[in-house]
Design brief:
By secondary structure, this protein is α/β, with parallel strands linked by helices. It is built from 12 helices and 10 strands. It has an 8-stranded mixed β-sheet, with helices on both faces. A two-stranded parallel sheet has the order 3-6. Helix 1 crosses helix 11. The two termini are 15 Å apart. The structure holds adenosine-5'-diphosphate and magnesium ion. The site of magnesium ion (MG) has 5 residues, from helix 1.
Length: 335
């Protein structure tokens, strides 16, 4: 299950994604955490020291190896250099699973032991001095899109991404790659305006978007969110002294989180689990192809010097991985 947390800076994306990750891990579920926000804070929110977080490998810096691995023996992709963030998988491509060892995880993922359970963390990497003026942050976020387009994830296994709601997610197809997108909104006009904008962009792509109100204090806040967000409002997370203690450097156990807030995490999990049956492998693959063709036409074919539209394997559908270890379905089959 692929889940994104989006929202305005400061709304609580990192806080809530880290808590959700811990909640899943505490239940023994396999989780990959992905930090795809330009402000890379997920590592520390999961308990890394600043020093450990600064030493995390970045996906952005390993793109050539990632491409080489994912390309596998796909005959439609001449070389890793011809692979862009949207290059879709086809026959011969290597696919990733949530629970496995592979060279991508070996190079980029770091295990984090939590007070209950553990996770693996992948980070896109910070926007560095050298990037200024020559690259956009979405070139780093592109690594996440590649991974998601090559991921075979099943029920009861999760990839949770902490991401911005900003233009970087819309510079490619990344925003369409999730089974569920949680938009974190404070009960303010700015909070809900980010929701409206996201919903607007996402409308034509069948993005399943639910709002989590955060730092909600009292009935007026709740009324405001209900009025502005309507049925898209899934749950509200209150102002939390537990979160504040954590922010002050304490390491409170997850068990001691306020029961009402813990119940919200469980509600998110139910919502995610319920979205499994809505998955459509064909539609998922078609959207990947659509964004690839758009990128190929608008800039990438010219940049790479070959017609990247030819990378599309039209008979391939990214199947679904079943936890009992079955192989993905043969090309063309709908699982
Ligand atoms: N429910 C909450 N109760 C108390 N403080 C919160 C809560 N949610 C977020 N915060 C605080 O608000 C600030 C911004 O949260 P953060 O998760 O970093 O936002 P974002 O990742 O969206 O930029 C942090 O200091 C965080 O501790
Ligand atoms: Mg953040």
């Amino acid at each position: 299950m692929k889940i994104a947390f989006v929202g305005k800076g400061g709304s609580g994306k990192t806080t809530l994604s880290a808590l959700f990750i811990r909640h899943l891990a505490a239940a023994g579920r396999p989780v990959i955490a992905v930090d795809a926000d330009i402000n890379q804070h997920l590592g520390p929110a999961l308990g890394l020291t600043d020093d450990q977080a600064a030493r995390l490998p970045s996906l952005g810096a390993h793109l050539p190896e990632i491409k080489e691995y994912l390309r596998g023996s796909n005959p439609l992709i001449g070389s890793a250099d011809e692979m862009i963030k949207t290059t879709p998988p086809g026959r011969g491509s290597r696919l990733l699973r949530i629970v496995e060892e592979n060279p991508v995880y070996a190079a980029c993922a770091r295990p984090i032991a939590l007070d209950e359970g553990s996770v693996r963390l992948l980070a896109t990497g910070a926007f560095t001095e050298e990037d200024l003026g020559v690259a956009c942050y979405h070139s780093k976020v592109g690594a996440v899109e590649l991974l998601l387009n090559h991921l075979l994830d099943g029920r009861d296994e999760y990839l949770v991404t902490d991401m911005t709601a900003g233009s970087d997610s819309f510079a490619s197809g990344l925003f369409t790659r999730f089974d569920l997108t949680f938009l974190v909104a404070e009960p303010t006009r700015k909070g809900v305006s980010v929701y409206r904008q996201y919903k607007d962009y996402a409308r034509d792509f069948g993005v399943h978007l639910r709002v989590i109100g955060n730092k909600v204090q009292g009935p007026d806040d709740l009324d405001f969110l209900r009025r502005e967000v309507g049925d898209d409002l899934l749950a509200t997370f209150g102002h939390s002294d537990w979160v504040r203690r954590m922010e002050q450097g304490a390491e409170p156990p997850l068990k001691s989180l306020e029961p009402a807030n813990r119940a919200v995490l469980e509600q998110l999990r139910s919502e995610v689990d319920a979205s499994f049956d809505r998955r459509d492998a064909h539609r998922y693959t078609e959207q990947a192809v659509l964004f690839h063709l758009r990128n190929a036409e608008s800039w990438a074919s010219a940049k790479v010097g070959v017609d990247l539209a030819n990378q599309v394997d039209h008979s391939f559908v990214l199947g679904e991985f079943t936890p009992d270890g079955e192989q993905p379905a043969p090309a063309g089959a709908h699982v």
